[in-house]
Amino acid sequence: MVGKIDDVSSPTWRVEANVEITRALVKKSTQRFVWCQWGVGYLFAMGFVLLGFLCELVVGGREWLLGAFGVILGLGLIFPISMWRNLEIANLSLLEKMEKPWAHFVFDEKGIVKDSELGSYSLTWKTVTEVCEFPEFWFLFVGKNPLVLPTEILSKELMQFIRAKTSGNRNKVEAK
Fold it and tell me: Domains of the chain: which residue ranges?
């Protein structure tokens, strides 16, 4: 990381960081992204469907209800798994296109700029609609599209700064 956060209220405040993009980083961030999208609520809902399925199976109730629970349960497993696989394949193919798999991040008072061989991406703090925090990654969402920040490039001060800058937005922070 280049730069130091001394006075984040300063208009010249700026932190730069570089990160190597590896296959392991892509795979783990894809898993975490899918978890961020589906989450604990989805697991509870699928647990209730499984409970209904098992109750109908044990009681020997209506076959159509057993079938409905079975279909919901099957599709409920297929959707997140297929989303994870498709995203992982797409992200790994992008990684393979890069000769130099590095990304350069610039954090300042206005927002974040990410620059890599595949292009540049910038966002302002007010456009961040959601923040999902995991021990290895932070996802800053602009709509449905996340900007992935490996926590290895985030100092404690920078994490606090990002939280402060995005707290006024429609901000949801996932538990670690």
Answer: 14-20+100-166, 24-97
- Provide the terminal-to-terminal Cα distance of the chain, rounded to the nearest Å: 23
Measured CA to CA, the distance from residue 140 to residue 171 in angstroms comes to 10
Question: Would you call 12 exposed, middle or buried from its count of C-beta atoms within 10 A (0-12, 13-18, 19+)?
Answer: exposed
Distance of CA 100 to the CA centre of its chain: 23
**C-alpha span between 32 and 26 (Å, rounded):** 10
What is the full per-residue pLDDT of the chain (176 aa) written as tens digits? Answer: 333 444 445 556 788 999 998 999 899 988 888 888 888 888 899 999 999 888 888 887 778 888 888 899 999 989 999 989 998 998 899 889 989 999 999 999 899 999 999 889 889 998 888 888 889 999 888 888 888 999 999 999 899 888 888 887 655 555 45
Instruction: Give pTM, 2 decimals.
Output: 0.74
Are 101 and 18 a contacting pair, CB within 8 Å?
A: no
Return the CATH number of 14-20+100-166, one of 2.60.40, 2.30.29, 1.20.1070, 1.10.1660.
2.30.29
